[in-house]
Amino acid sequence: MPATSTNSGTSQKILDVAERLMQVRGYNGFSYADIADALRVTKASLHYHFPSKSDLGRRLMERYTENFAAALTEIDASGADPRQKLERYIALYASVLADNRMCLCGMLAAEYATLPKPIRSEVLRFFDANETWLAQVLEQGRQAKGFRFAGPAVEAARALVAGLEGAMMMSRSYGDADRFDRTGQRLLAELT
Amino acid sequence: MPATSTNSGTSQKILDVAERLMQVRGYNGFSYADIADALRVTKASLHYHFPSKSDLGRRLMERYTENFAAALTEIDASGADPRQKLERYIALYASVLADNRMCLCGMLAAEYATLPKPIRSEVLRFFDANETWLAQVLEQGRQAKGFRFAGPAVEAARALVAGLEGAMMMSRSYGDADRFDRTGQRLLAELT
DNA sequence: GTCTATAGGTGGATAGAC
DNA sequence: GTCTATCCACCTATAGAC
Fold first, then answer.
1. Separation in Å, CA of B173 to nearest CA in chain A
2. Are A127 and B182 in contact (CB < 8 Å)?
3. Distance A122 CA to D9 C1' (A)
4. 20 to 30 Å CA-CA from B169: which of A28, A119, B19, B150?
5. Neighbour-count burial for B5-43, b at 16+ CB within 10 Å, e otherwise
6. pLDDT tens digit string along B64-74?
7. What does the pLDDT read at residue A4?
8. CB A115 within 8 A of CB A108
9. Residues 6+ apart with CB under 8 A from A4
10. pLDDT score recorded for residue B173
11. CATH code given to domain A58-189
12. How far is CA A172 from CA A86, A98, A100, A168, A179, in A?
């Protein structure tokens, strides 16, 4: 663990702060100055670790997708049944919302037209990974006679992600996390 | 129609351009300079009609909600049955998306944490109006035995709006309007 | 109503000392 | 790796002439 590595603790701390700012305020809603204030360093110091804001955003997205994928792998490894898996998936969203954050990719999807290209493709990769994982869980559940839904599992997966992302945005605006929970429960109930 | 009225043609043109910019790029993603370029006037001229960006955003939201409410009233007046009403409601979203825009309020809901207070309350008013109208249509449909859904109609309405807003965001990111249409059809099918 | 000119601030980003 | 100092483009907004 060389001290000069860009993956040092400082870079991670920068990413932590930037992640929160981006989930709460959006890519166009925060600046290097915000991060610098929070960490009590100068803006120039941040540019050493992440030369441009575009770099920072892309690296952030990569880490986010990685962490999310790891969480999904852990759910798979837990031996839960499809219904429990979905419950835990929805709980992931709820935990983000509890911190007054949006899903990073939901936020960036809204700002999509203004994003640097490298960030855009990372956003789509995140959604793709979610759909793939969800479609698999849904198909398992359907074959085990636990879930009932029409059409290809991937279509049901897309509707589910859309519902969760939308519910998240609206619940946060109302400052009422309960809204999200009720919609999440409803989406789950519709599958059974 | 006094020529000095702030409701003159110029103000409307400014709102038209600003509306598109805000739906495509978000409140934090456009500036007075963008509007000035599009209309070939100076920024100072814009400030005459809308003193601050906050004013502009609020007035924009008010007009948007008004227009949307008028569209819903027109649907009501058409004598369509509940299912047709919902189809037309979903078609409203689709027409916005076809222009590569987000729902203005979906966009602002994502940026909510950074919005001036007067704009925030307008966003919630928009969602409230949608929920109220939808809940009424859903309840009509349920009593006519055309729709089947569990729980209070307003909860089903919220899930519907969330699904449509989320689908809109994701479809636009993928540049694939068809995604939205399929999710819209699915949401409708789940009610019957 | 629209213009020129400008104020006062913040944005992302770089050079070079330490 | 972090700092000071600085650049320049852009931001919202205003004053005052026409």
1. 6
2. no
3. 28
4. B150
5. eeeeebbeebbebbbbbbbbbbbbbbebebbbeebebee
6. 999 999 999 99
7. 40
8. yes
9. none
10. 98
11. 1.10.357.10
12. 21, 9, 7, 6, 9
